[in-house]
Specification:
By secondary structure, the chain is an alpha/beta fold. Helix content is 56%, strand content 15%. Strand 5 and strand 6 form a beta hairpin.
């Protein structure tokens, strides 16, 4: 009898050791200490079941399974219940090492307030972050603004240098100062889009920063308004400076800028990219449309034929 008990104890100990090994090595949980999140990706990028999930550089779970949903890939992420995933976190697939293999990385923007934790009842659904698309879109816009501001700078230098007949007749310290200020504002805006106070960096860290986007659009609006005020001032002059402002390079810069900005708006209307979720926010879109109205006015004023003549 004692021998049978001994055999039973040894057997139970052996089974327990096997279960413990399975828990430790297989990421199993006897207490249900995990929850599931559905992650939607545009491209599976060789992701497979069993790949690790990292939050802030720490492994917090495994990819449980992968399925197709239309043209998208949906991965079920099995996360340790003790780990909270903020609703505004970035989710993306990255290479695990130079030797191959993939992992799911979850990050959160530095200095950005965390969103509410995702529910742990299995209903949570997150979408792949695609900040590079937004970076390219706004980067293209900033490039166009840089070109336009460069044209303004050329006009300002032409005026203040008194070059040619136009330069000699049109030189006016106040007006030249206005043009220089506009060029500086446009250049400052372009720089702010790239680096300014984390505007673009914040997009890369957190695509839901509507307040910062609004601030960037406010700046865009201010620059456009300043340019329009300058064009209004030109109309009150003798027409010579107006002729300078109709310089082909300047016109091309304004036209490219407007085309780029409207292209972004069309993408938003079509629901394309991260920008769609941002610009289709009503207050945000209203600000964008106001900026476009300023550009329309500027373009119309510069395009209008001059009624003034130059006196030799």
């Amino acid at each position: 009898m004692r021998g049978e008990r001994l055999v039973g104890v040894v057997s139970l100990t052996f089974v327990g050791a096997l279960l413990l090994t399975a828990v430790l090595l297989g990421d199993w949980s006897l207490s249900g200490g995990h929850y599931r999140v559905q992650a939607v990706f545009h491209d599976g990028d060789r992701l497979k079941s069993g790949n690790a999930i990292y939050l802030a550089g720490v492994e917090v779970g495994k990819v449980e399974k992968i399925r197709f949903e239309g043209e998208q890939i949906v991965a079920t992420l099995r996360i340790h219940r003790a780990c909270d995933i903020p609703e505004n976190a970035h989710v993306e697939i990255r290479a695990a090492s130079a030797f191959g293999g993939q992992e799911v990385t979850i990050t959160h923007g530095r200095g950005v307030p965390q969103g509410r934790p995702l529910p742990k009842d299995g209903s949570a659904r997150v979408h792949e972050s695609r900040p590079l698309d937004l970076m390219k879109e706004f980067g293209d816009l900033s490039e166009e603004f840089s070109r336009a501001s460069g044209s303004f700078r050329q006009v300002a230098n032409h005026i203040t240098g008194g070059h040619g007949a136009f330069g000699s007749l049109a030189y006016d310290e106040k007006m030249a100062g206005h043009v220089r200020a506009i060029a500086r504002e446009a250049e400052d805006f372009a720089e702010a889009v790239r680096h300014g106070d984390g505007t673009l960096g914040a997009f890369l860290e957190d695509p839901s920063l509507n307040e910062r986007i609004r601030a960037a659009l406010d700046r865009f609006n201010e620059v456009a308004a300043s340019i329009r005020e300058e064009v209004d001032a030109v109309e009150r002059q003798d027409g010579v400076l107006g002729a300078l402002l109709r310089d082909d390079a300047l016109w091309a810069g304004i036209d490219r800028l407007q085309s780029s900005a409207r292209g972004l708006a069309r993408k938003a209307d079509a629901g394309q990219g991260v920008l769609a979720n941002l610009l289709n926010d009503s207050p945000l879109r209203r600000k964008w449309d106001e900026a476009m109205a300023h550009l329309d006015s500027i373009q119309a004023k510069i395009a209008a034929p001059s009624t003034a003549t130059v006196q030799e």
